[in-house]
Fold:
Amino acid sequence: EQGNYYFENGNYKNALYYYKKALEINEDNEDAKRGIALIHEDILFRRGLKLFNLSDYSNAILKFEKSLKLNPDNQKALEKVEKCKKIIELTEKAEELYNSGKFEESKKLFEEILKLNPNDKNANEMINKISKIVDLMNEINILYENKNYEDIMEKIGELLNIAPDNKYITQFVTEIKTKAFKQSLVETFVEGKKLFNMDKYEEAMSKFEEVHALCPDDESVVEYLKKTEKLLKLKNESTELYRIGKYDEALLKLNEMMELHPGSIYPLINIPVITELAEIVKKAEFFHKKGDFNN
Structure:
């Protein structure tokens, strides 16, 4: 009776003491045996429950099943075993979906797990993690569309910090970096051609050299690079020849520029000026030789 009293009040330590005392007096005491079994059953169930709340489902199942051996009719233990097995199954599926990049589907399964166990640490962490991943991937795609390549690299770093081992994300990052890299080079090359057409050869050269350093075998880049180098040389030579009064030679250089770059404004403006100046000089020399200083 004392054992039952303590058992009903949850004082298992005292209950066990009196049940054992009862068995010392009568080893066939069924009430004492049943009381001890119920205590062991409840202890195992509570340990299983604790493991369940810690998301340690495999070990929780072991405790619940041991509890069921002592009392096969324990409905709570049966339900917990089923919940544990269901959560393990859902976790495996959710992680498989996560690893294959099906983040939204994975998230839904982790949310189902939380319905079975709101304390599931892994499910809570994965839901937060997936939300961040999806947001970052969307941001990266928008940045790519807006050609904001510097910010893309920052967001990629954040993404890899969150999920460094996810193969799908690694592939996504590789593809977006490759596309951004190629697009950035194309834009740099286009910018270089614009500067080239504006006769800003020094600035154009800088752009072409930047692209050439990364794509040394690109024939278009090599062609523009050589052409720009030649035009710069001709421009500098014509300027120097003009400075020292060698106008005919300066005109030859400017005409070479026109042939190399028909749309160039620099020779177009300077050829008429130097031609006129050269003619004035020739006339002056002619009259000087004749001794006609009035003309």
Summary: Residues 167-197 form the longest helix (31 residues). The chain has a mean pLDDT of 87. The CA atoms of residues 103 and 130 lie 6 Å apart. The chain is about 85% helix and 0% strand.
